[in-house]
Fold:
Amino acid sequence: MPTRVSRHRLIRGITAAAAATLATGLAACGGDGEAAAKTTAAGTVTVGRLSNGAAQETELKVSEVKSISAELPASVRRSGKLVIGVGALPSGSAPLNYVGSDQKTLTGSEPDFGRLVAAVLGLKPEIRNSTWENLFVGIDSGKVDVAFSNVTDTEERKKKYEFASYRKDNLAFEVLKKDAWDFGGDYENLAGRTVSVGSGTNQERILLEWKAKLAQEGKKLDIKYFPDQNSINLALTSGRIDAYFGPNPSVAYRVRQTAHTPEPTRNAGTYSGAGGTLQGLIAATAKKGSGLAGPIADAVNHLIDNGQYAKWLAAYNLSNEGVAQSKVNPPGLPLDNS
Structure:
């Protein structure tokens, strides 16, 4: 028999549920902390603020380029802002995207570069932080204009998105320093290993294809998933996994951070994010047909030509991942990953 609920209790319950929903939405979206990268009226963007040792704080002079901002879709131009998606929840991945030393502001090479591009376009950057999966939901729904979040250019993703490349995409295996294993560029060397990888990532796709190949040969590759980077790090140091397969910049950062700890790690080999025959590329990612890839690529090339791009890379110790030119929809990871 149903129980009767008073109108007062019902309203109170609805109010509480609404508050919980609002809190969840805010956590998923995040916000742009001006403390992380200031953009002044004079056109100065400061990158590497609150980086907690992951970057050298650097002031860069970046002003709007009218000929490039004129290429923007009218709706974006009228809004006066560039909504930038970053998939850093729940714990981020330094130096790419993570919460800064003030324990609240999103910082890292990816959101900082989005802010630089926004400055060239004459737009106010608005950062939306989410999980990796919800990053693409945001683009699909139109709540996010463009993602700057270490997204690999792939032919599969081109079915739904358009790209403007801005950095090389290299992946790496992180192992404990005392582990003598090396990848050596050959998936056969993964036989018998237990490896962690981020769910829904390009590196997961590569690892799953290697697992399938090994299975056909009667060999085993065990893949483990964890909710965040901190859990992965703990699994590696405790011996629950043999290796972590992830973005090379993140692995390089953790190798430096663990150098003087009881369980230091090392880079056990790299691999192109586009497979064995093509250099992978990281790209700004917008909805296909949005008209944003062109002006963003032109903005990136302006930053390259005027030296701000090289200084941004140097601030985050990523100079070895620089590209000579940003391209719209360049060749990406093939559909068959060959």
Summary: The chain has ten helices and 13 strands. The first helix runs from residue 7 to 29.
